[in-house]
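User: I'm putting together a teaching handout on how sequence relates to shape, and I'd like one worked example. Could you take Palmitoyltransferase ZDHHC17 from Sinocyclocheilus anshuiensis, show the sequence you're using, and then write out its predicted structure as tokens right after it?

Assistant: Happy to. First the sequence, then the structure tokens directly below it.
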Amino acid sequence: MVVQLMKYGADPSLIDGEGCSCVHLATQFGHTSIVAYLIAKGQDVDMMDQNGMTPLMWAAYRMHSVDPTRLLLTFNVSVNLGDKYHKNTALHWAVLAGNTTVINLPNYSAYFRL
């Protein structure tokens, strides 16, 4: 569906009222293949919403699945960015959410500076 929408001129750079891009939303709802497609089409993997949350932060906080997080990490996201208000990184958000799936990613220390 997303491919068809873009084929007919849909603008993937639009953001919603909370500053979320399509990459943010696809990540939050676990649509990993859509995230990959949008990034491949040039969407910014480190774009922040109005609260300074990146797609990686949302993946770590909302998705108790390894897929969106692992995919975003393969695109060399900035793992040490902090959000606007608390300066929490994606790893902080994973801990706050009790997201042991992300916390226990194999070789996660290769991605996150501890």
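A couple of points you could highlight for students: The mean pLDDT is 91. The first helix runs from residue 2 to 7.
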